[in-house]
Amino acid sequence: MREVKSVAQRVAPGSWGAHRSIGAAVRGAKPGGVITVQAGTYTESLVLEKDIVLVAKGTVRLVAPRGPAVTVHAGRAELRGFTLVSPAPRDAAVLLRGGEPVLRDCEITGGRVEVAAAAAPLLSGCSVRQAEGMAVRLTGTSRTTLEALTVGGCSGDGVVVEDEAALELTDALVDGVAGRGIVLAAGAHAALTRCEIRGSGAAAVLVDGHASAALRECRLYEASGQGVWVRGTAGRSPGPQGRRPWDVGPSGEDRIPVAASSSADAAGRSADRTQGVRLRDCEIFRTGRSGVLAEDASAIVLDRCHVHHTTGAAVLVTGEAVAELVSVRAVDCVDTALVVSATGNATARDSTFARTGANGLYATGEAEVSLTGCTVRETAYTAVHLGGSARVNARDCAIGGTPEYGARVTERAELLAERCEVTDVELTGLCVEGGDAALRDCRIEGERDGVRLITTHRPLLADCVVTSIGETGVRVGRDTGARLENVTITGATTGLLLEEDSAVLVEGGAVRESRGSGVVVYAGARPTVHGLTVESAAKNALYVGDGGEGRYEECHFTKSRFPAVYAGARSRIVLRRCAVDGTETDLLRDEEAEVYAQDCHVEDVADPVLPTLPPPPAKQGSTPVPGVRRAVGTSGTAGAGEQDPEAGEAVAAKLDDLRAELDRLVGLEGVKRDVVTLTKLMQMVKVRQDAGLAPPPLSRHLVFAGNPGTGKTTVARLYGGLLAALGLLSRGHLVEADRGDLVGEYVGHTAPKTTAVFRRALGGVLFIDEAYSLVPQGQFTDFGSEAVSTLVKLMEDHRDEVVVIVAGYPNEMNRLLESNAGLASRFTRTLYFDDYSSPELVRIVEHQAKSHQYTFAPQTTAALHDYFENLPRGEQFGNGRSARQVFQRMTERHAQRVAELGLSAVDLASADEELLTTLLPADLPPEEVL
């Protein structure tokens, strides 16, 4: 048999041998047939279900009398050059419900294009105009490819992708839609390449739900709202615990994993289902609000993008959103370039944040920000501002060009910086006001102050260079502690200024060419300075004002124009192994000053005084040593290195108060004996140190083993206070932490989190409750082991500055110590907290009652004892916590009992006090309540 070839069909009303309607030609065509349609207007609706090609010759308008102009259910139908018109702008002009239809160079007007079910269409060179609600809608599991699409004049959204639909959009123009330009919702995905979205009424691109998107070489501009808005859980990957939505591959390039296509036939033109929201080589500008907004629990990557001239923030990350910025330029915005708030997390690398109307970076809430190789400059406000409990880690960054502060850390925020430069700052290069900071190998400049520290934390500057042309190089505020390691300070009127009652440790470094005094110490300041060089000061190298103190060891004071050291009235200072040269006078002191010198070297000084001074006393009963806290024996007699009697009496009173508070604790007799013994041992350590003797080997770190509610936190607080009173801790405060505070969520997150918590505890006690949770049993890849290793190193680096106490169930604590040899070697003493007995629990409730002005009827105490005797003591039993809960329940039941008496408010006001305060056995709660 001969093969039957498909015959081309013609549609031309009024012509001989041609179909009068397109529908008739379609019905008569065989699969694979070609239909040519002559110019004209055809009022009909096409339904296509087979492979067929329709070609418009001239201008062909297909006007639907009702419903869609074209509906495709199956097959590979193709339309070329048609104008498809819908009579209802809010309905579909083209409905593609199945098959793999193709529309080329078609104009759809007065209605939308809708792709549903599992259709996989291709639209090339088409336009959609004058639709209402939305111009293109993709739903179901459809996979659509749009090439050179134009959307314009629409009163709603441009392109909407919903459900699990996928879109590949290339070389498109979405222009002047009243709603959002591109909307991705639910589990949809879109890949946009070389697209232009201009003049949208709201966001140019909205990614919502758990949708994903990849934009490459796109331009989004003149939106009334955001340029890109990512919300919900969009961009989040359901990957392994602790992983980001993207993983760094070997090449460091595209790190978003790509899943395989579900349809091999459609793979050539369908979008890859990228898990994430990624913009690469995109430009976002002239937006009415933020350029990029990531909120809720979404995730986004900006790679080589340019965000500029935005009315709101260039990039805003909030909620629980995660953002990564690589080689991004966020510039010329009316507001801040990068804002991270709530619990948002932003990582920026090789990016620029500049020319802003507010800050360069603003981080607040519990935000976490990491900057590497970034530039933050030319800002109207502070370049980098941290507030709330935000935490910023900056490496190799350039910050400055601001009329305010280079970096400002406030409230409880933390700044960690390494190899950063802060320059061209009109006020202070680094200002820490209430927060904390640790800077290493940084260069900091400020026209007023280089660095200013006013905080209850203890900031660290290590291997930094600080320059100021104004008042001070480094200014440590009142009641502020700080640590300076190998810091070089140049310029400024005063190189290093220590205000009232500050406590600073200086190791190495130099203060050079100050226009006033090199180091200035105010009243009550207690610096310990070792190995500092002060060179070419226009006034004194070291100026200790009235009431100032301090130890200065192995320091070099050279070429000062005024006396190298000045000691004001009532000042008390110790100079050990210091060198003075190149000045007329080595020491000028007030007659009420106390200055001690030991092994000091003076050269090229006209009239040296230091060699004639007595050395600091080191024996019991001798003259007080300045700058050293008194060590007090149990009998109250002074040990070596005591201060004046008034200070010693204050310390003794503080010790007595703390020991009395310890004694008042219910039960815990063994623990209380151990704590008293430890404090006596620590006291002897202090005495030997002040006498110049080597301290005995003794670890201050402790293990508290016991069940919940046995007073471990309270004892830890008292232990810190006792060591502070003895002068072995500078503050003695308690910082509580658990696994969530120390262990991060992804690679590289844990060590900085652990370090930040540890730094807050410097000078006091770090108390880690349920510490065994750092090493979950049977989990070898958990980040908790990294937290343990970080703790071990920090404990070694700061062995004399902090006490670490780990607490938890006795059996579990053994497993923790066995997990790391370094950890076990630092925790050699365990204090066991026994469960409370029934009489002890009764005493706790009685103490609670007394504190809240309640009393017990005589029979209530016996009933309460029996209650605790019968109370089950399983895993839910909370010891002291359970006792406090019992008291709370008793007060609630007492209030209910009194209320049920039916007394009026007037009667209650005049009622007998016994009625209002006496707890009866009936007020005890049922045992099952606890």
Automatic annotation (TrEMBL):
Keywords: ATP-binding, Nucleotide-binding
Keyword ATP-binding attributed: yes
Source organism, top-level taxon: Bacteria
Keyword ATP-binding included in the entry's annotation: yes
InterPro entries the UniProt entry points to: AAA+_ATPase, AAA_lid_6, ATPase_AAA_core, Beta_helix, CbxX/CfxQ, CbxX/CfxQ_RuBisCO_ESX, P-loop_NTPase, PbH1
All residue ranges annotated as the AAA+ ATPase domain in the record: 698-837
Residue span of region Disordered: 231-271, 614-647
Compositional bias ranges of the Low complexity kind: 259-269
Family: Belongs to the CbxX/CfxQ family.
Official protein name in the record: Right-handed parallel beta-helix repeat-containing protein
Species of the source: Streptomyces lonegramiae
